[in-house]
């Protein structure tokens, strides 16, 4: 049987898990998932960034993950801000991954709220991959109270791309024969691992969609973006032979940053 990989991603994990805690403490309170809200930062000091946002915060006010809280407040002054609770998030993450490991040990956890699962060895338990994904989504919602998206494909990159299609609580497939229809029409910025700098270079080359990239000359891409250009070309064409690594890899680096309490206007202030 062809290898089948699931990418399972918790929808707005921090926000969902904080919402469940608040509803447990006060069942009559408003579910912050249903109103413009974020997790992260501090309203008074303006410190911090957006760690997670509600669907309405994204659609109505264009608030993005990782933008400064100060920017988010400018877009929506009435925004509800909930402080992060990393101990709580760790508890929910363990429940999430723990349940999936009752299905198969073949799981690669890539963050606190997402993982890859090799469906191939458990395929005989379900009528189809879509049925297996539906079981996972329904179990998590019924037993834990939050939703996930499941992307299904024959490799990790395409499964990841599929899970990022319409949200929340959805299953999407993106097999190689579906790439042209479902993926090539998307803007180049939607491609996995295409960061701001790479996208800027590609747009200068008049590469605006994933399809444009897939049909570009890989040698020209390598000339401008080195090995990263070749990798992006492979991803645009659905090429990814990376194995699913159930043993966690050692971290390659650790980052640390701080958001200032007010805008800096001069070089001297920054110094």
Helical coverage, percent range: 25-40%
- What letter string, H or E per element, gives the SSE order? EHEEHHEHEEHEHEHHHHH
User: Uncertain runs with pLDDT below 50, 5 residues or more?
Assistant: none
Rounded to the nearest angstrom, the distance between the terminal CA atoms is: 60 Å
Descriptive account of the structure:
With 271 residues, this protein is α/β, with parallel strands linked by helices. Helices cover 40% and strands 12% of the residues. The chain has helices spanning 13-25, 55-61, 69-75, 86-101, 129-144, 156-163, 179-182, 196-204, 210-214, 218-236, 267-270, and strands at residues 5-10, 37-39, 52-53, 80-82, 107-111, 114-118, 148-153, 171-173. The protein has a five-stranded mixed sheet. It is globular, with a radius of gyration of 20 Å. The N and C termini lie far apart (60 Å).
Quick description:
This protein is of the alpha/beta class and 271 residues long.
Key features of this structure:
271 residues; alpha/beta; 5-stranded mixed β-sheet; 3-stranded mixed β-sheet; 11 helices; 8 strands; 12% strand
Could you outline the blueprint of secondary structure elements for this entry?
Layout: E1 5-10, H1 13-25, E2 37-39, E3 52-53, H2 55-61, H3 69-75, E4 80-82, H4 86-101, E5 107-111, E6 114-118, H5 129-144, E7 148-153, H6 156-163, E8 171-173, H7 179-182, H8 196-204, H9 210-214, H10 218-236, H11 267-270
Parallel strand pairs: 2-4, 7-8
Antiparallel strand pairs: 1-6, 1-7, 2-3, 5-6
């Amino acid at each position: 049987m062809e290898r089948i990989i699931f990418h399972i991603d918790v929808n707005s994990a921090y926000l969902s898990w904080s919402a469940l805690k608040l509803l447990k403490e006060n069942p009559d309170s408003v579910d912050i998932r249903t109103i413009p809200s974020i997790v992260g930062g501090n309203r008074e000091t303006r410190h911090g960034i957006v760690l997670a946002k509600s669907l309405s915060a994204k659609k109505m006010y264009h608030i993005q993950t990782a933008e400064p809280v100060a920017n988010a407040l400018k877009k929506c002054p009435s925004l509800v801000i909930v402080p992060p609770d990393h101990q709580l998030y760790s508890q929910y993450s363990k429940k999430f991954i723990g349940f999936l490991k009752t299905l198969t040990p073949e799981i690669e956890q890539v963050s606190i709220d997402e993982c890859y699962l090799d469906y191939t060895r458990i395929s005989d338990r379900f009528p189809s991959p879509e049925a297996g994904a539906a079981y996972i989504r329904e179990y998590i919602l019924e037993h834990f109270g939050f939703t996930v998206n499941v992307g299904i494909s024959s490799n990790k990159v395409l499964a990841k791309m599929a899970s990022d299609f319409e949200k929340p609580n959805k299953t999407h497939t993106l097999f190689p024969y579906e790439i042209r229809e479902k993926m090539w029409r998307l803007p180049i910025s939607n491609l996995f691992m295409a960061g701001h700098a790479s996208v800027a270079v590609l747009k200068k080359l008049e590469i605006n969609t994933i399809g444009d990239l897939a049909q570009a000359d890989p040698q020209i891409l390598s000339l401008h973006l080195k090995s990263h250009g070749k990798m992006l070309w492979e991803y645009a064409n659905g090429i990814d032979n990376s194995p699913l690594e159930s043993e966690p890899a050692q971290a390659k680096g650790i980052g640390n940053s701080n958001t200032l309490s007010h805008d800096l206007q001069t070089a001297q202030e920054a110094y």
